[in-house]
Amino acid sequence: MAKSIDGLPLVETFHSLQGEGLHAGRSAFFIRLGGCKVGCSWCDTKHSWSEHVHPQRRVEELAQDVLKAARAGAAFVVITGGEPLHHPLEPLTSAIRSSCSLPIHLETSGVDPLSGSPDWITLSPKRHKPPRQDLLASCHELKVVVHEADDLLFADVVAAQAPQAHWLVQPGWDSQEGQELAVAKAQRDGRWRLSLQNHKWLGVR
Question: What domains does the chain contain, in order, with CATH numbers?
Fold first, then answer.
């Protein structure tokens, strides 16, 4: 696990559109950090799992990249992974806030304690490694990926612990069963909203 307060293992940065969740369709700058021990079989960023193959990047340099993205039209910055909370994020969020006023969004599975000072937390919990209670209690949106019926049971369990959050079900990519289950869930229970991976449908990054 990276412990440096100056640098973090960086997989990539890019300016695109948020493809999922409540903020889908909005201009966003992504910082993807390396390292993930959650190990989801359906993960579409498995190249990010090993933090040691990715170069360390100083948080001040990343903050300057965020500033450039803000000037280019980004509405917010997304810290993602991998699992970003494997790393101490306070130096990064502090550096970003010192450089510009762009809101900071965090995408996490919730297996580690919260660090840094995000303005928006997207919690995507996993059945095989459930999230921490404090992340459930502080997240702004709860996004559960659905492949099979047990995922919906899990969704109801975690949602009951996150009453303050917006609840979303998202079909696993290329999962016909997940699509049917997620659509039916959103249709019959108005507390839930359907989330799609719009960037994949559109073929954008």
Answer: 7-202 (3.20.20.70)
